[in-house]
Amino acid sequence: MAIATSHKQAGQASIEQRVEDLLRQMTLAEKVGQMNQVESGGDHAVVHLRHAIQDGHIGSVLNQVDVEIVNELQRIAENESRLGIPLLVGRDVIHGFKTVMPIPLGQAASWDPDLVRDCARVAAREAARSGVNWTFAPMIDITRDPRWGRIAESLGEDAYLASELGVAMVEGFQGDDLASVGSIAACAKHFAGYGAVESGRDYATTNVSENELRNVHLRPFKAAIDAGASTLMTSFSDLDGVPATGNDFLLRQVLREEWGFDGFVVSDWDSVRQLAIHGLTENDAASALAAATAGVDMEMAGGAYIHHLPKLVEEGRVDEAMIDEMVANILRVKFRLGLFENPYTNPSDLPAIADEHALDTAVQAALQSAVLLKNDDHALPLSVERLSSVAVIGPMADAPYEQLGTWIFDGDIQLSVTPLQAIRRMLDGNVEVRYVRAMDTSRSRQSDTFDEAAAIAGDADVAVLFLGEESILSGEAHSRADINLPGDQAELVRRVREAGKPVIAVIMAGRPLTLTNIVDQVDAILFAWHPGTMAGPAIADLLFGIESPSGKLPVTFPRMVGQIPIYYNQKNTGKPPSPDTIIHLDDIDPKASQTSHGLTAFHLDAGYTPLFAFGHGLSYARFEYQNLRTNASEIRPGDTLQVSAELTNTGEVPAEEVAQLYVRDLVGNVTRPVKELKGFKRLRLDPGQTIEVEFRLHTDDLAFYDRNMQLVTEPGEFHVWIGGSSETGLRTEFRIVDSD
Ligand code: NOJ
Fold first, then answer.
1. Ligand 1 atom at minimal distance to the Cα of residue 136
2. What local confidence, expressed as pLDDT, does residue 334 receive?
3. Quick one: pLDDT band at residue 598, thresholds 50, 70, 90?
4. What are 193-242's pLDDT values in tens digits?
5. What's the gap between Cα 291 and its chain centre?
């Protein structure tokens, strides 16, 4: 039976007082219990966990989403443990719960923080119905490697975009008040550097210089913490020789001392014990010591803490005061969540699953995340009036599970509306729709129905091919070394092309793909990522021009896998390439000397440009930017510069455009990227409408970590661009001059 304690009464006591009061009453075993998170999936959780919870040996459970079981576990914690401390109930709610939103990389293509916030809010409310009070999201690892399966879960390659959208996700999950019904704690992950795994192989080593770490990889984490993210998860990876789960530089120096984080850090799954597998420690006890000393407050699975920390304290190898601080970090979050006031869930306090708002949000997100990569001769949109038949072909046209993407533990496949269903519904007998799946899965090597596919394409006015990757080809431990369309899809494209009708490719995938071998075979490409539950209605609306595509790439699409890492904000190098310094190996004159072309940074077989650049995305409207200007040619530290341009919709349909602001700092104490995103705005324009797009750039926005790891804004010359992609050419200049 729990004893009555003052920490239970909210009253006037501050959270810090309540934490202190509770800590004072806790035994060492109970403290370490708070640092222990266990798997509790399955129907027998109550039987399995009852005694451990009664004894105060569990602080958190993960993967239990049966609300009755969760409530019973909370009841045991409240009424049958000595101090009645409620449980944190964690779950990977990554891009939706029952209603599945586009994968995070797809959401990032919307460049719309409000929408991303709404998606997270819907997910939080649906998950909260099950008693979940903590999600392991957002994942804000910066990655420049589409081979990495977890790029699907990321917000792309750019630290600014990922920061803005990561913050929006934190706000969506946590709401205005963490203690209110429908708010769940967020977990920014994976701290840090995970996105830089060598060759995109999941869990592989990372080598990131401190300067790169601070200027790129850490920025979204700082932003998430400033936005109030309650928790952080460590990375599985080994960062510069010190695995993240044992990395005191990251977890103590940066996170606590420099950033003042007062939430808690959870390890990744069993990553404490993996310190021994990495070769950092000799055994589980040493791993518990290393992780706790480094600053991992809670261990997810593994049991090294619960088994070894009490003894390590008794032996004097771990200071109990340090344990107290770590437990305080955990309790603080429990208090902030209001769990001591009410740990129970009443689903009827929350919106119904997949209600109208959830489904509308899912449609909107799928609409805004799709990127029109190419559209020759206005192949899209299709006109219902001018068509009499459409051939729908491919393994992703009617694949209700595959369209959901990775990490959908709770996603309800019954809610999925596929593109084939939506197209049939939209055309409703007025236009004939014929369908050949052609391949069982995206990986199939079976061409026996390709003739049939080509035949229905030949008979139709247009062929719409639904290609891509099934969901299992991306996500954790699902990296690929070859990122072409898998299986015989390229052959399918070729065969359908031969039918001589316009060919539209709609691609659903968890990563950028190398599309070089099909790009010239199709008239248009709509890249939809894994769009989630409402893929069908959104894609049908886009194909038939009810809506105009407006997504922009949050990540660069390489021509060939050998170009990776290729990203827009590269350094200039001492020998930057240009169109007239490069040559293709097929064009090298056999008699030429080694230096007959410029000695610059390019590949003889791929040049130096991507297939599709960061920020790229076409529309059914036409957007023109002009008259770029700043309100000053010189500013001083502390000033704000206004940068503006006129944006006109010179097309014939209303549409949304994402205007992007880029900057280059020409000379730095450390070399600076050739372009850096510093702002973006999603704007809706009617045909013929012109609007003034204005950005405000504070000199702090131009700060970077110098070679002494100091955050500085240096005087000097800057280039600034506004446009519809990172390739925009509309540029002007300004200078920062010294104050004196
Ligand atoms: C391992 C993954 O790396 C992490 O992102 C996830 O949250 C945990 N497993 C829990 O499922």
1. 7
2. 98
3. confident
4. 999 999 999 999 999 999 999 999 999 999 999 999 999 999 999 999 99
5. 26
CA–centroid distance, 208 to ligand 1, in Å, is: 22
Nearest to 93 by CA among 40, 150, 134: 134
With a CB cutoff of 8 Å and minimum separation 6, the contacts of 233 are: 136, 187, 188, 189, 190, 191, 265, 266, 267, 268, 300
Residue 154 backbone phi and psi in degrees, to 5: -90, 175
Distance between Cα 145 and ligand 1 center (Å): 19
Q: How far is the CA of 115 from the centre of ligand 1 (A)?
A: 25
Query: How far is the C-alpha of 638 from the C-alpha of 650, rounded, in Å?
Result: 38
Which of 493, 510, 301 is CA-nearest to residue 404? 510
Nearest-CA residue for ligand 1 atom 7 is: 136
* Token couple for 565: 């890492």
Tell me which of 476, 478, 479 to substitute to probe ligand 1's pocket, judged by most ligand atoms within 8 Å of the beta carbon.
476
CB of 668 within 8 A of CB of 717? Answer: no
Q: Which residue among 62, 64, 136, 148 is best mutated to probe the pocket of ligand 1, counting the most ligand atoms within 8 A of its Cβ?
A: 136
- Residues 672-684: tens digit of each pLDDT: 999 999 999 999 9
Give the tokens for residue 665: 């700092």
- Average pLDDT, stretch 341-367? 98
Could you tell me whether strands 462-468 and 503-508 are parallel, antiparallel, or unpaired per DSSP bridges? parallel
> Measured from the CA of 63, which atom of ligand 1 is nearest?
11
**Percentage of the chain modeled with pLDDT above 70:** 98
| Residue 723 parent element (H or E) | strand 716-723
- For ligand 1, say whether the CB of 268 is within 6 Å of any of its atoms: yes
Q: What is the average pLDDT score of the chain?
A: 97
Beta carbon of 269 within 6 Å of any ligand 1 atom:
yes
**Nearest C-alpha to atom 11 of ligand 1 is from which residue?**
92
Q: Cβ(525)–Cβ(505) under 8 Å?
A: yes
> What average pLDDT does range 311-315 have in this prediction?
98
- Give yes or no for residue 136 CB within 6 A of ligand 1: yes
CB-based contact 404:416 (threshold 8 Å): yes
Q: Which of 268, 262, 135, 95 is nearest to 192 (CA)?
A: 268
Nearest-CA residue for atom 9 of ligand 1: 269
Query: Torsion over CA of 519, 524, 525 and 526, rounded to 10 degrees?
Result: 170
Q: Torsions phi, psi of 603, nearest 5?
A: -100, 135
Pick the catalytic residue from 141, 158, 238, 268: 268
Q: Which DSSP string do the residues of 580-602 spell out, in sequence order?
A: GG---GGG--TT--TTSS---S-
Ligand 1 midpoint to CA 108 (Å):
20
- 153 CB within 6 A, ligand 1: no
Question: What is the SS3 string spanning 512-535?
Answer: CCCCCCCHHHCCEEEECCCCCCCH
112 is catalytic: no
Say how far apart CA 193 and CA 237 lie, in whole Å. Answer: 8
Expressed in angstroms and rounded, the spacing between residue 269 Cα and the centre of ligand 1 is: 6
Helix (H) / strand (E) containing 306: helix 304-314
Check: CB of residue 380 under 8 Å from CB of residue 504.
Answer: yes
- What count of residues does the chain have? 740
- Is residue 368 within 8 A of residue 101, CB to CB? The reply is no
Confidence of residue 1 (pLDDT cuts 50, 70, 90): very low
Amino acid, single-letter form, for residue 523? D
CA 469 to centroid of ligand 1, rounded, Å:
22
Taking the alpha carbons at both ends of the chain, their separation in whole angstroms is: 69
- Of ligand 1's atoms, which has the minimum distance to the CA of residue 139? 5
How far is Cα 181 from Cα 133, in angstroms, rounded to an integer?
Answer: 10
Q: Is pLDDT of 6 > 60?
A: no
Query: For a pocket test of ligand 1, which of 268, 298, 299 has the largest count of ligand atoms closer than 8 A to its C-beta?
Result: 268
Q: Which two tokens stand for residue 64?
A: 């239990």
The DSSP bridge pattern shows strands 432-436 and 389-393 to be: parallel
Is 731 within 8 Å of 628 (Cβ atoms)?
Answer: yes
